User: Fold these one by one.
Assistant:
Number 1:
Amino acid sequence: MAENKALNRLLDILKESGADAWELTETQEKGWEFYLIRHALDQNRVKELESFRVKVYKKFDDCLGSAAAPVPADADDEEMKRIVAGLCQDATYVRNPFYTLNKPEQEGKAFGGQVETVDLKAISGDFLQTVAGLPETDGEDLNSCEVFVSEKRRRFMNSEGIDATVVYPYSMVEAVVNARKDGQEIELYRLYHCGTCDRDTLIRDLTETMRCGRDKLTAVPTPPLEKADVIFSTDASCEIYDYFFSRLSAGSVYRGISDWKIGDVVAPENMKMETAAFLLNSSENAAYDEEGARIRDMTLIDGGKAASYWGSRQFSQYLGLEDSFIASNFIVSGGKESAEEIRCGDYLEIMEFSDFQVDHVTGDIAGEIRLAYLHQGGKTISVSGGSVSGNMNELVKKMQFSAENRQYNCMLIPAVTRLNGATVTGAV
Amino acid sequence: MKAPFSPYLAGMAPGLKKLISLLREKYDYVSVLSTDSTGFQTAISQKSKSVTRETLTTERGTVVRVYRKGLYSEAAFTGFDPETVEKTAERISGELEAQFALLESAGVKPYETAVLPDEERTIFTEMETARLPETEDLSALVERLSAISDQGMKDGEEQGIRMIDVMTRASSTHVCKMFLTEKQDLRQSYTYSEGMIAALVAGEDRTEMSYTSLSGRCGPELFDRMAEKLPEAIRIAKDLLVAEHVVPGEYDVITSPEVTGLIAHEAFGHGVEMDMFVKGRALGADYIGKRVGSDMVTMHEGALCAVDVTSYAFDDEGIPAGDVTEIDHGILRTGICDALSALRLGVKPTGNGKRESFSHKVYTRMTNTMFDSGESTLEEMIASIQKGYLLEGMQSGMEDPKHWGIQCILDRGYEIVDGRLTGKIVSPLVMTGYVPDLLGSVSMVSKDREVFGSGYCGKGHKEWVKVADGGPYLKAKVRLG
């Protein structure tokens, strides 16, 4: 990365500040955005952003104080000095048990996802062409769409000598589709995060969404089922697996939010969860985390048992981990049954929630049903309304997940997950 | 004292006006929004302590909006240099031209919109605050929050609760925004603050976390009242440890002001954001002038209808703050609207055009969304219920303007049988239903009302902005699961 004057001035000020240690992150983002109503352009936007964030540390016997602040890219020397001096003072107010910062890595596995630059025009063009090529009909079409394409560049430096730069593409697409029949119109909402444009996946998913739209037009109110086996086969599944991932973060464990210990049975006995340094087209691919630690592949759950924690330098060291990192991509595998085998007997397959959530502290799950397929006695009907609830501590005991996987940005997870015995409140 | 307007922005103004003038040679309309908002957040618990000089709304940057041939375009950037205005103007035009070329090759046509009017207007507002985030004594604040955490652990243990931690957080932001066009010069400066106490507790095979908060359009003086919230945090934690699951079904309920606010927000907050009318995404467009609730339901929205975290003087498009009566005794009167959607719909903007930050697009967004008060007392309302729940504490909600569904995830329900609270508690609760059914069932409304500003609101699943909502206690019929 080309040297920049503001960064050099800030570095000099940090070195002369009296801080016992420091971290400096320079973030740059170039972005193109397109907002469509139907297929007409509502607005186009460009952005070019640069900012710094500094964190200073002060040592006190067996404690470490720290404080952080953003530093505007156009700050002059006086403003930079004022901010850094203020942080050196702030750091004396909050003292945590001592820990050390990451150090430069001598050797590491080559990172396959590094890019030099991101072609905003080409990626934007791919998205616009994909949206224009959606297989719309008189009954199902695109209501509106927002396309965001960015080049993100992050340079991390610290007083231990780390100087690591990551450059990666980040894209986001929000799509709303309508389906209509006999004067009735409904909508379905999708939000995709990814690296660049994966045309086939986007077309396939939006086509499936439009099919769901047709079914929602004929949906009847969800009957009161009390307890039911519920199948997740959309991005709502991410919440379920993120629950396991979050419960294994060093910060959650150290602070008592999670009581999971290494070796505990925390998941179905065949489940394996691993972090992944690189996952094809994930928007989270980076060689280093935000604290300069090398991101690598690591097993978090093996055979249903907690195998390792992941997390920030501070909380990982408090748990005795010297070599951890802030993970972002993860893979869940180990399913013994096929998606078809899991879809057996009576079950409720949820195609659209208002907002499905899993509470990482309590394990409570909750979500309003916007569209589901109720398979009962060999018949299938579309239903809408009511809610799903329950608690993962109980549901995990009879949880099933498929051998087939499906990727949702930074998560490669089972395509089909079945939570048996969830509570289903009807809409009537 | 007055919250002083940013000297940085004041210094930039002449350069930005020159930028507007240069861009006007090429575009039919040009506006600039520049921000310089500072603040701090400190989080103190038994396990960890932190302090940062940033909050979710601290920022410094500029966004330029231009109009040509029926199309609005924007460029957001950091690091404006008044000495190189010509280069900045060229860079903005160049980047946008590159986008226009791509759009033309992709065959994308503009959604034709008229040009925004630019009328002479000047606003300079420095709102009252007792203290400023940038000069707050953080050492004393950290000590105060540490004492609250320590006291919470002690109080909980004395009540026989297995305490894991008592977490506190205080954040305060000094917002400075400047909106400029050829004829407008609007500048505002105000502070807002938020405090939170959460108690993390353990029971047999369960961990629970209670949550209490306070907020205000004020400086860090808000935190002088933090300790008052501690008993509530401990009481809620104790309640959650003995809570059972609700038997799913339809119940008569009384919603606490916090839950009332969540209903207001999800039902006819999002439901009447008029940028959704433009896209045909809101059922509300077809119900203006029609009944959507009982006679007891009156609802207001606007930065002027309460004083809390988002009570600004003008929005991010330079439209002065408003107070809109959305529902008047059960009849839907109007919605809220940003400036561009107002042009497209042929209505007046309401001062609800907001951005997540300077680098994000404007959408129609809520500010303070409030139900009006009624005539009943809480005691009368409880006495009127044969079998139901008093609902308290919000976790989250989700809008559905197209179909008028509603999802509210609530913290606790206190059982009422034969007009009395039984002491039995249920948690968590998923409240769902059809918005007109829910509002149509409102049969009692309390005299008092409160506003809550500790939450953030997304549009769909992104674009997070500060909002406040609230109201009185409502008696209604809802579905709980």
Number 2:
Amino acid sequence: MLAYILRRLLQSVVVMMVVALVSFSLFRFVGDPVSTMLGQEATVADREALRERLGLNDPFVVQFADFVTRAVQGDFGISYRLQQPVTDLILSRLPATLELAAISGIFAFVLGLGLGVYTALKRRGWLSNAIMTASLIGVSLPTFLIGVLLIWIFAVELQWLPSFGRGEVVDLGWWRTGLLTPSGRASLVLPAVTLGLYQMTLIMRLVRAEMLEVLRADYIKFARARGLSDRAVNFGHALKNTLVPVITITGLQLGSIIAFAIITETVFQWPGVGALFINSVQFVDVPVMAAYLVLIALVFVVINLIVDLLYYVVDPRLRADRGAAGH
Amino acid sequence: MTFDRLPKARRSAALLGGAAVALALGAASAGAETIRWARVGDALTLDPHAQNEGPTHALNHHIYETLVGRATDGTLTPRLATEWGIHPDDDTIWVFELREGVTFHDGTPFEADDVVFSLERAMAETSDMKGLHGAVESVEAVDEHTVHVQMEGPAPLYVQNLTNTFIMNREWAEEHDVEEPQDFAGGEESYAVRNANGTGPYTVAERDPEVRTVLEYFGDHWAETPEVSEIIYTPIAEDATRVAALLSGEVDIVQDVPVQDIQRLQETDGITVETGPENRVIFFAYDMGSDELQTANVEGNPFADPLVREAMHLALDRDAIRQVVMRGQSLPTGVTMPPFVNGWTEELDEYPQPDYERAQELLAEAGYPDGFEVTLHTPNDRYLNDEAISQAYVGMLDRIGIDVNLVSQTRSLHFPLIQNRETDFYLLGWGVPTFDSQYIFDFLVHSTEGARGGWNGSRYSNPELDQKIEALATETDLEARNEMIAEIWAQVQEDRVFLPVHNQLLAYAMREGISLPVHPENQPSMTDVSFED
């Protein structure tokens, strides 16, 4: 077990290094940070001097080695755009993204599960058909469009919910939360729905398919023959058996919710790390871009690691055949 | 002068106490109104000399003050300086008489020494404002309220460079170790990035970068009390969301209104839109100086031929771009100079109507009967509809046989191409912060030498004109100077150094009952807001 964990950790480190290297070499194609940092009066000499101060004239290998050495110590340098330490900047924006991801994850899971079970049980009902048709919209419309549509309906026309921002936040010292104020909670609704809609549809369709599969199984027929109530059969036996793959997928989707929050955050002016990243790309703020990509890689690596370890705990076959681990 | 004494009067009134005084105070701050202001991006920093950038200056103008201000009609107005002029005995010295009775937000009185400190700070190696103060040799406080700026030579227009150079307090800067602007290589955040101590009409009550900034009226400010007592400033990056926030009543003023939404907003009940020209001209430029083009499919340089340049001018249908691309929101022009700039005339502004037949004849005459191929570089996120303007012109050039390959990219990739002379043909917009032709000549017309010609991607080089431009910088006789400006423009127009398209229009949308005039530098001041209620 210990050797397995160590091996997985080692692999994770290699993955992180590769992500850092790839993202770092991509920045050369994003543009010249110096041209956006200096005003239009700057001379060639001014630009050259700033380039030298930033270390942009050093060879690629030196820049990368420097980046990794400092990143390992948690120092990602200073933002070219906002002139604040990148680590502080990301830590101050992370709570907004994590709260949004958590709420939209819960929304997607709970609603997806409920609707999935309903449409599986009432397969031929008109409501089920309507839900299934509507869910096609959820998977096919781009997030951006859904966000703008929701803003127009709920903020402009009905004026029920705010169109942008995070509302009033409460500072807990190391975490700024919007969950404790009414305006903070109201602000969460539209972005969470926008972000979670795709995942919700995915989970709903998955639950439905799994449910239909399980409902045809012999043990369900036996359970019904035993005269158990519908409730006990559907929820006690059928649903329980559909949950294993659903939980796996949901766990893996959590990573993409955090990563895909970029678009939702931009549409709703949500002050999270995704919006920070987009603004940084436009300004060629290399330190922030590098730190963000490494952070997202870390999120995926950690989630995958946990999932792998869970498999190891759940599935006894993996323990017998170590060679197959991690696949 | 009565304005200056207002805060003092209020202070002494407050000392008297009593209900009547409270009533009087209530009347004095009648405009206890909050304004919620949104635009596309936030100020990058509160450090007034670290970034020479529009939105940063726009916010800082509320917190800090400059010696002279820029009114919405483009003229200079007194701010911290009440009078200014060239020293009567020495034309290399600028004299500034400072306003008396001004205090910083922390209560320290404003003195000449603060101006000395601030101008020196603006000239520091890490300052982004130093380009505007290149001709300054030294700054001296003659007495508590007089400052002499010693220039390297006569500099008749130096005062025009001061409209965005903010005055800080020396003691405050020393106390917080911010005597110089942020050095990015330093790796640490400077105190001045998120804290400020200015003399401006508003103090910073809350600053959460890119989320929310709250400014409150500074009771001891020297000027007339503005109607707006509190400003809540929120950047909203997405066009659709920004407009939605105005329509849903969550913000009162939206500064960057997308061109395609202007008409719809004008027709919406409860919303008014103010438009006005921005101090920024949009133009195409081509490499007319090199022997060979980098992207053309013909030998030599077709742009070097005056006939080709004339043909390209005749192929540009500015009215069509105005109607189709800009939906009426632009002022087509025939000169690379916004109308506010000293040197602008109606004759220069006139532009020719397109004549495709004549253009084709000219091309044939120049030896390109079948045209040629070339690449046009355009930004796609810097100016209003920049990419669409270029696309439209590509179609027009196609009609006369010039086959253009359009490369559209983000500004951080586009501008280095011009700075490094890696493009043959490009779109550029030029704002003129000094409101004088000199600024255009220095950067766009003069040959590339030292601090001049940095943006001369036309590779235009005319030694005679270079001399005139240099002489212009030190000519103190304004009449002679204006004649020289006219001569230089005549030559630039004759040589067709640029292909001007239009001046951009700015649009501010706001809740009905509010009025805010458009500022040519897109730096509106909330002290100019008035309420009709």
